């Protein structure tokens, strides 16, 4: 699904043929599929309205108007039949039921980076709250929205919450000014509290491993710390130095090369295909000899929100690898072997890393850098894929299909779908 101004377009994922066109009341600012792909919501924050469309019954539609309360966020519940709307100034979360048309309210939600989290099985929801100048967490049962547990947290300014994939442990972390990660059980008991150091800036990012055995914590000091699920103690620290000196680490460096032109084929005026090949540079990966010095950027100290520390973390679907990005070295992706807890590969790009995402079915990483190329890494090696097309297609984000057969490449104004061929066994 994609939106153009006030129009919603639903396409077939394999052929990109248009299946449905819907017209909304105003410019669409956010869209989201229900978990069973039968409904799609379109949020219009400026108007405080959410419209819901049915794929099975195109004539059916639903409009939710928050009125004077306004709207700043909207999302589906895991069952795909309830919509959670957050009103302006985070006064409350309104839970609308599509089946019974009933409404439930959750008061005092906290305005933070990640204030609502669902367990993967869809049974429970955790909500970060702020009342009387203190942080709290409420856990709700999703089938009837009854409060299961309500407890205060030992945080100064709670920044985010995230469930482990098995739904047994909830991680909560404090503001960047206070290094603190808290781990709670489903009944609200504090299992453990982790603090790496005291005074410098603290937690930058967090990621659970798919098996729930590891919690990776990216910090402002350019390190990743991995906690284990038995004692919740640190098992290792992963550094991101500017110089790679280990001979066991493979460094892939992206290099640009100008195309070779056959002068006998030159015509005037040149054909479109020849002109595009004349002025387009190609890139490939070379394996660098260690030691390798990476481009290190020292942050500007007198500016707000400096880009520093490990800001991106992601585990592969099979739990074998961890990909990280240290914002002080913005052109590199670090890939760690989790079984050995060692650095396996570094991808050194020509431009700043915009996003990366793992294939949901196998250890294969897709990377984009704001250029018209997508980069793929797997244990077998690296490849650079040039996206065909006219004009400047700058890829800023990537989204894999759940089957791993294709991925969506997004730029500011366009999108394209990249289909990957499976090897016949």
UniProtKB/TrEMBL annotation:
One of its GO terms (cellular component) is microtubule organizing center. It comes from the Eukaryota. SMART domains: WD40. This is WRP73 protein. It comes from Cinclus mexicanus.
